[in-house]
Each structure stands twice: as structure tokens, then as C-alpha cells.
Amino acid sequence: MEGDSDISGLGNDGSGDQMDSKVVQTFQKSFVQVQNILDQNRLLINEINQNHESKMPHNLTRNVGLIRELNNNIRRVVDLYGDLSSSFTKTMDASSEGDSSGAVKSDGKTGLKRNRPA
Length: 118
Fold this sequence. Notes:
The protein has 118 residues and is mainly α. It is built from 2 helices and no strands. This is Protein ELF4-LIKE 3.
């Protein structure tokens, strides 16, 4: 994500309901954390490549630690995206409770029940 993204429009379904500002702040904070880790990964990858190209034993040994750090960072990004996905799903489910628009919910079911004739 380059630059600042405005996600404050999430949850605005046209009915006047908007996502709670605290939720938006949480999403933005998580996206900033992800971006910071990805920026750090870019620097790590550059250093790993330079060390690899140098073929110096000390630099190649250092790469072991750098690659471990890179792997840990990737795990953190995956965890953050997992948390974001879960939070987003919960937020959307909460905002669609009582919604009779027939929108498909995260469980794959619609918000409408079928009326059967008596």
C-alpha cells in the first residue's frame, strides 16, 4: 500500500450506517503495521541479495539470520492479515444483523428467510 488509504467508507451500505470509527482506526493501524513490515522485508531482501552476490563466507553466514528474520516477518504479516480478515468478517456480520436486503453473509446464507405457504 503506497500512500495513505482512506477506508472510512467501508460499511457504508447506502442506508446511512457507517462503520464505527474505532473499527476503522483498528484497520488502519493494522494496515500500517503490515506496510512497515513489508518495507522492512524489502530492506532485508536487498541485504540478503548483496550478501549472496559478495560470496564472502561472513556475509553468507549472516544471511542465515536475515532469512530467519524475513520468515518471521512473513509469518507476522500472515497473522495480521488473518486478524484483519476475521475482524472485517465480524464487523460485516454485525452490521448486517437485521438486514433484510438478502445480501449473502459470510456463512454463505442470505439474510432472508423463505416464506412457505400454509
